[in-house]
């Protein structure tokens, strides 16, 4: 056996942190899906809300990126 | 510390591409040392000059391709500032245009193989986010004085809830530069790291075609991300600017 | 995490990876921040001094050109409409004139025709009266001649029969006979 128990913990933690990205995926999917269904109901109002769509996606995606960052930190920096 | 599987032959170095190296020699990196980051920032300046200054030098009424791109970028950011931040925000348009042009060029330049993406470094994005944060806060206090604090006092909420909401708003206000910067750096870094990981799998002959497809797909995704993140950074800057110009909820 | 002894040899060869994430290598932060600020200031200077005013002026110029062209097009359209209106007016006038001339001609022709017809009628009437008179005269002459011839004939017949003709009686008989025939 190589390595030590801390490193094992770090790797397991990195894997667990990656699960957070699934949450971000669900969030982004929900935002885009709701935007689409709203846009299909009222297409004339859709173009004015693309900025809000991107802001929402960015906020939601940020948390996925955070979890990815935590995984990277555990893998390479701890 | 991923370099442990040396005995197995497969070595993952997804973060190696972000390493800063001095351009000349092999000395330590002082604050003035020209590094590869300096080089690619300089190239970004060059591209912006080519696009917005050299491209528009003919001042044609009917634009050619380069001038069209420059005008498109100008119109894109100008309408964004005007729509989101309002008429008063137009005064800060060159500032926002600078941020957008730098981020979008640096992101796209970072997609060139063997290049260095400056926007993947938290140091870079944190400085930009802090610039926005500090500027916007100063603008808010200069414009409205103590009235700027109304931003945290949600007048549409019930009175009992307002102190709680004020605390939450205050925290979210100070988290802004963190998420603002880490979002950009994280997205760019993640895209490049994943491409690197796929590329490492290419060393195994059996799954090399699969990894090639993966690289192509991720690259396409990264092209999208490169633009969308620049857009998001800029539009969030506009939103923060709007909050400073019109703090009342 | 501290470098473990088993990895020391491996990491010695990879000096660059010692930091793990290069993003968190704080030794490079001043360098990046310095060059970033230089870059941003340079870009800001270039944009605010050269690029943005130029693009703004080009866009404004184009907007002006487009507006001017649109105004000119509008003016030309107005002119075309006016020309068409004038043409239509002239056409209508010409048509009215033609109508008038036609009506005038028709009226004149009618009057001339009427006059001609009246004249012809009058002539015809005159000729008719003349011929009637001639006919009447002829008839009168004819009746006289018939009377004379009949009287002469009757005289001769009476003479041939051996009687002495009585002119007065014969004339009376002829006149009576002719009168009866005439009725």
Notable characteristics:
heterotrimer, A: 78 residues, mainly alpha, 3 helices, C: 183 residues, 0% strand, rod-shaped
Strand content range of chain B: under 5%
* Shape by Cα distribution of chain C: rod-shaped
Poorly predicted runs of chain B are 1-7
Please give the alpha-carbon distance between the first and last residues of chain B.
49 Å
Overall pLDDT of chain B, averaged?
87
Topology order of chain C in helix (H) and strand (E) letters: HHH
N- and C-termini, Cα separation of chain C: 168 Å
**What is the number of strand segments of chain B?**
0
Cα Rg of chain C: 68 Å
Order of helices and strands of chain B: HHHHHH
- Give the helix level of chain C as a range of percent: over 70%
Q: Which strand-content bin applies to the residues of chain C?
A: under 5%
Summed up, the helix count of chain C is: 3
Continuous helix count of chain B: 6
Rg of chain B, please? 22 Å
Structure description:
- The complex is a heterotrimer of chains A (78), B (249) and C (183).
- Chain A has 78 residues and is an all-alpha fold.
- Chain A has 3 helices and no strands.
- Chain A has helices at 5-41, 43-46, 50-77.
- Chain A is rod-shaped.
- Chain B is mainly α and 249 residues long.
- Chain B is built from 6 helices and no strands.
- In chain B, α5 packs antiparallel against α6 (208-245).
- The N and C termini of chain B lie far apart (49 Å).
- Chain C contains 3 helices and no strands.
- Chain C has 183 residues and is an all-alpha fold.
- The longest helix of chain C is centred in the middle third of the chain and has 132 residues, at 29-160.
- In chain C, α2 (29-160) packs antiparallel against α3 (167-182).
- Chains B and C meet through α1, α2, α3 and α4 of B and α2 of C.
């Amino acid at each position: 056996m190589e390595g030590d128990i801390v490193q094992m913990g770090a790797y397991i933690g990195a894997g667990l942190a990656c699960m957070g990205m699934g949450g971000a995926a669900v969030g982004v999917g929900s935002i885009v899906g709701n935007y689409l269904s709203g846009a299909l109901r009222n297409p004339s109002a859709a173009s004015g809300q693309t900025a809000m769509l991107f802001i929402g996606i960015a906020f939601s995606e940020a948390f996925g990126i955070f979890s990815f960052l935590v995984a990277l930190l555990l893998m390479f920096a701890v | 510390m991923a370099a442990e599987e040396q005995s197995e032959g497969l070595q993952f170095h997804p973060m190696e591409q972000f390493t800063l190296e001095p351009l000349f020699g092999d000395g330590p990196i002082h604050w003035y040392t020209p590094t590869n980051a300096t080089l690619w920032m300089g190239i970004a300046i060059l591209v912006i000059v080519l696009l917005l200054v050299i491209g528009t030098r003919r001042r044609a009424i009917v634009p050619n391709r380069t001038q069209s791109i420059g005008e498109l970028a100008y119109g894109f950011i100008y309408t964004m500032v005007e729509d989101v931040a309002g008429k008063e925000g137009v005064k800060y348009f060159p500032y926002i245009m600078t941020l957008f042009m730098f981020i979008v060029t640096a992101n796209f330049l970072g997609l060139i193989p063997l290049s260095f993406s400056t926007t993947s470094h938290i140091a870079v994005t944190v400085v930009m986010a802090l610039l926005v944060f500090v500027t916007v806060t100063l603008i808010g206090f200069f414009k409205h004085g103590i009235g700027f604090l109304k931003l945290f006092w949600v007048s549409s909420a019930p009175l009992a809830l307002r102190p709680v909401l004020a605390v939450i708003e205050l925290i979210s206000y100070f988290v802004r530069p963190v998420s603002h910067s880490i979002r950009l750096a994280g997205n760019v870094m993640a895209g490049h790291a994943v491409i690197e990981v796929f590329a490492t799998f290419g060393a195994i002959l059996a799954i090399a075609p699969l990894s090639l497809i993966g690289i192509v797909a991720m690259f396409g995704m990264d092209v999208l991300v490169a633009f969308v993140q620049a857009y998001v950074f800029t539009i969030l800057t506009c939103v923060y600017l709007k909050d400073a110009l019109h703090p009342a909820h | 995490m501290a470098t473990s002894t088993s990895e020391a040899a491996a990491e010695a060869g990879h000096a660059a990876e010692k930091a793990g994430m290069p993003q968190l290598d704080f030794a490079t932060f001043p360098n990046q921040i310095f060059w970033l600020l230089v870059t941003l200031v340079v870009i800001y200077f270039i944009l605010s001094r050269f690029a943005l005013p130029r693009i703004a002026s080009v866009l404004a110029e184009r907007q002006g050109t487009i507006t001017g062209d649109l105004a000119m097009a509008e003016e030309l359209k107005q002119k075309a409409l006016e020309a068409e209106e004038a043409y239509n007016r002239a056409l209508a006038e010409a048509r009215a004139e033609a109508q008038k001339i036609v009506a005038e001609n028709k009226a004149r022709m009618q009057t001339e025709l009427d006059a001609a017809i009246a004249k012809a009628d009058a002539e015809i009437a005159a000729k008719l009266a003349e011929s009637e008179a001639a006919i009447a005269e002829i008839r009168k002459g004819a009746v006289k001649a018939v009377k004379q011839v009949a009287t002469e004939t009757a005289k001769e017949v009476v003479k041939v029969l051996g009687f002495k003709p009585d002119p007065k009686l014969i004339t009376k008989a002829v006149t009576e006979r002719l009168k009866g025939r005439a009725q």
